[in-house]
Amino acid sequence: MRSREFGLFFVARGIARLGDMMAPVALAAGLIMHGYGAGAVGLAMASMTACFAGFVIFGGVFADRFNPRAVMIGADLARVGTQLAMAGLFLSGHVVLWQVCVLGALNGTAAAMFQPGVAGVIPRIADDVQGANASIRTAESAMTLAGPAAAGALVGLTSAGGVYVAHAGTYAVSALCLALLRLPPRPADDAPPERVAEGGRGRAFRADLAEGWREFSSRTWMWAVIAIWMVFMIGSWGPTVPLVAARVVEDYGAGAYGAVNSAMGAGMVVGGLVALRLRPVRPLRAGAVAALGFGAQPAAVGLQLPVPAIAGGMAVAGAALAFWGVMWATSVQTQVPPAALSRVNAYEIAGSVAMLPVGNALAGPASAAFGAHEVLVFNGVLAVLTALALLSVPAIRNLRRADGIRGERLKGDAPRTDARMTGRSGDGKTG
Length: 431
Description:
Elements: H1 4-33, H2 38-65, H3 68-92, H4 97-125, H5 129-157, H6 160-180, H7 201-217, H8 220-252, H9 254-277, H10 283-290, H11 296-302, H12 307-335, H13 341-354, H14 356-370, H15 372-392, H16 394-397, H17 405-410, H18 419-422
C-alpha cells in the first residue's frame, strides 16, 4: 500500500467491485417494479454472463498483445456508457426486456476485455504478488458487504436508475485511477512476438490464441484445477446459489438472508487477511485444504440449522473461498511467463465461469426431483469431495511457490532460465 501504483490499482478494483455488487440489486428491483418476474431477471443476468464467458479469451489476447492498461481503461469507459444507458431506461420508465439484455451483453463483453489484464498488471506493480492479491481480495470482500446495502438505500431514495448512475460513476473512477497508473515497461524477453508480417493480423490473432492454449494446457496443475472446478460449478456451487437464496428467504425471511450474506462477506474479509499473513510453500495444497470449508454453506442450509449456525457456515465458506482465490491467483501470476499471462488467465477464467450457468439452471429441476434441502446437503458433500480431488492430484498439491521472481526481473536482473521462469512447472516439481 506504500506504492503509488498499487494504491491506484487497489482503489480502482475496490470501487469497481462496489458498483458490481450494487448492480444486481438495481436490476432485480428495477425489473420487478416494472412488472417483470424472476425469469426476466435471470435472462438479463445470463446475457451478461454468457458474453463474458464467450469473449474473455479474446480479451486475454488483446491484453497480451497491446497495452493492458489501455485495454482496461477502454473497457471501463465502455461500461460507463452501458450503465448510463441502463439508467436512462429505468429513469424514463420505458423498460423493454430485450434492450436491458442487449445492454447487459455489451457490459459483459466489456468486462471480458477488462478482466484478463488484471493478472498481467499485478505482478508489474507489486513485488509481493501474494500480498497484492490478498489486499485486493480483502477490499473486494468488504465491498461485497457494502454494495448491496448501498444499492438498497439508493433504490429507496431514488430508483433503480439512480443506482445505475452511481454504478457508471464507479467505472469512471476506476478508469481515472488506471489512467493515472504508470506501468513499468515489460522486459524485452517478456514481450509477445510480433506476428503481423507472418500472414496478417487475423493469423497472428489465431496464433496468439493457440499459444495461450499451449501455455495453459502444458501445466497439469492448471488444467486439472479448472477441470475439477467445472464439475464443482455444475454439481455444487451453481445450484447452491439460487437454492440457498430461495430456501433461506422462504424458511427464515428476507432479513435472515441479508444477515447470512453479510456473514459470508465478513468471512471473505477474514480469508483475505489470513492470506496476507500465511505464506505456504505449496500454495495450492494450502488452498485446497481451506476449500474443505466450501461445503459449510449449502450443508448448513440443507440441514435446516438455526440462522446463527447458517451464518457461521456462510462465514466459513466465505473465508475458504477468499483464501483459495488468493492462493490460486498468486500461483497463476507467478508461474506463467508474463508475455502469455493474460491469455492463460483468460482461459482459466472461461473454464471457471462457463459451467456456472449450467449449474444455476440445474437447481430447479434437481430440487423438484429430490427436494431442495436434500440437493443442498448433496452440494455440501460434493464441495468436500472437490477439495479432496484437488489434493489428490500430485501436480496441484506439490506445486511450490515462486514469489519474488517476477519482481526481480522487472528490476532489471538477468533473465532466468530455470523451470519457474520458463513456466514449465506443470508437474509440480518447481523449486
